[in-house]
Amino acid sequence: MPGTYSIIENTWITLPDGRRLSARIWMPAGEGAFPAILEYLPYRKRDGTAPRDETTHTVFAAEGYACVRVDISGTGDSEGVFDDEYSEQELSDGEAVLEWIAAQNWCDGNIGMIGISWGGFNGLQLAFRRPQALKAVVSVASTVDRYADDIHYMGGCLLSDNANWGSQMFAYQSRPADPVHRADWREDWIKRIEEMPFMAAEWLRRQVRGDFWKHGSVCEDWPAIQAPVLAITGWADAYVNAPSALAANLTAPAKAMIGPWEHRYAHIAKLDPADFHGEVLRWFGKWLKGEETGAEDLPDYRIFMQEHFNPSMQNKPRQGRWVAEAKWPSPNVRDRVMFLGQGTLGDQPVAGTLAISSPATLGRAGGYFCPGMRYDNELAGDQAEDDRLSACFETAPLAEPLELLGRPRVKVAFSVDKPVAQLVARVCDVSPEGVSQRITYRPLNLSCRNGFEAPEKLVPGERYEAEIELNECAHRLKPGHVLRLALSTSYWPIVWPSPEAAEVMLHLEDSSLVLPERFVTEEILPQNPGAARDYPVLKAEQLRNASGRSKMWTREDGALVLDTFDDYGKAVDPYHGMCVGSHVAMHYEVHPDDPATAAFASDWTFEFERGGWQVSIDTENKVTCDRENFYLWRKVTAYEGAEKEVAVTKEWRESVPRGVL
């Protein structure tokens, strides 16, 4: 039966160079040594992840695990200066943290790592380095390739979230340590702000898949990971490709699961929450405690097979069923080739050409790149309007169901009229009523047709061939529905547009869609996670509730504008009394006839107070471009006291050549 636990609010982990990292520990009741679970993040254990931590580490501690939540150097209450995501400093510090945990008398030497997104990344990255004490990993919404599948680039195209995420990390880095734990908090706060790296600019300078992105990309050497890995994500999340890749390629035990969820742990997802705790306890029970939990006997790949559900940008339940594949790759999945014709998908090649040239505003139904980060209004909606502006190829209404599992591929022969151009592919399920649901998508920078390490600009008029491997999907199309492939030369605001409008000419006789079609005569038991169990929640005093809004509108000059506002609320923590509030406004715009008018801006505000201590921070960010360069600007103003006296203010400006972007 689950037991009780105690909380150590703060303890210090001293690194070999003398820096100290701040840790919060949930300790199981009783005597003896316990296996440990580490979550290692830059998001502030004191307030940033505290509500989520209350729902996870309390449960795991009650089940006999010492849970350790550590702030990365230069973030939260930890000493030092933060340098970059997944840096050598972060990972070598992580090895030292694992060694420290293993040496404690309350730890039996067996440690697992858990995390979503950043924590999912560095769990895999630390396993890649083979520290002795790391015995298992639960990695949620992560990547195996930092260039191909993160928040910066996709298919060699720049994602607008490179700017958005850079602005969010800028705001996050500007926050001070808690004076309760750091007497030097003010000096450290000023230093953090003064020495903040301009990460959005640095990432933008790294436009090809070189050593910078290979660092931390575990696909560079699959056998290096020897710890068993449970990889989880959701279809509404941006990070859908890693679980199947890990299940297919790791030599260590690896299991994959993808549910309907957005970018959250499954038990707190807004989309059909599930028993995340049970999955974690089964995995760590086997690999940390040596219990017979059945973890090793799970199917390689458990999947929520989606169906058409009349998509909207608001959170609503998904439609589908759980299925499983005992082995992955599966003999139940076979390629089905369909050839592109004049608006058709057929069994035979068709001669001819078809021109594709989209307005820069195409993509308005694409939703937010990574749903789960905003309050709401972030999912992909009905694609019909975007489809009308695309080149579409579709089947006749299906006589039989069509089930897809894997990564579709689009093979194209093409020529262009500009040296830089994009091609974006979307596969959609169209209902008899004409509602188009996006199944999967992916862009390709056509300069990267031969790979992402040495892109080459295009010669207008020359004939080329390329392949787009779309994102992982699992979808069942019902009889009477139509499968549609939509191709466009833009997908704003998810993908930053090319420097100028381009026309891509398809040569149809050598263009096709390859579908991963699933055939199963008898389903195995899927062992789906089931409904979420009860779990503790943080009993914070809520001073301002969370809320959000979005508005898309057309300005008088014809530019399409998207304005969003997310208020994450304001609350008082019951453990230490700190009051924290935050909100962000984001702005996207582009003119349909001029991709070089694309612009992004965001303004973040944080407030902190306890007793007589009061600080607030405003961060502003802008990214604009022309045909030759990107222009980045940011500013931080940090205030102290009720009168909001300026403690420090600083601006940065950078310009980065576009290269092949």
Structure description:
The chain is mainly beta and 661 residues long. The protein has 10 helices and 33 strands. Among the domains are: 5-146 and 215-304, Rossmann fold (3-Layer(aba) Sandwich), CATH 3.40.50.1820; 333-518, Galactose-binding domain-like (Jelly Rolls). It starts with a strand and ends with a strand. Residues 281-536 form the Xaa-Pro dipeptidyl-peptidase C-terminal domain.
Overall mean pLDDT: 97
How many individual β-strands? Answer: 33
Largest sheet: 10 strands, mixed
Helices, by number, come to 10
Low-confidence stretches: none
Helix content: 10-25%
Q: Structural class from helices and strands?
A: mainly beta
Q: What amount of the residues lies in strands? A: 35-45%
Second rung of CATH, namely the architecture of the domain at 5-146 and 215-304: 3-Layer(aba) Sandwich
CATH class category name of the domain at 5-146 and 215-304: Alpha Beta
- Radius of gyration over C-alpha positions, nearest whole angstrom: 25 Å
CATH topology of the domain at 5-146 and 215-304: Rossmann fold
Shape: globular
CATH superfamily of the domain at 5-146 and 215-304: Alpha/Beta hydrolase fold, catalytic domain
Tell me the strand order in the biggest sheet.
1-2-4-3-5-6-9-10-11-12
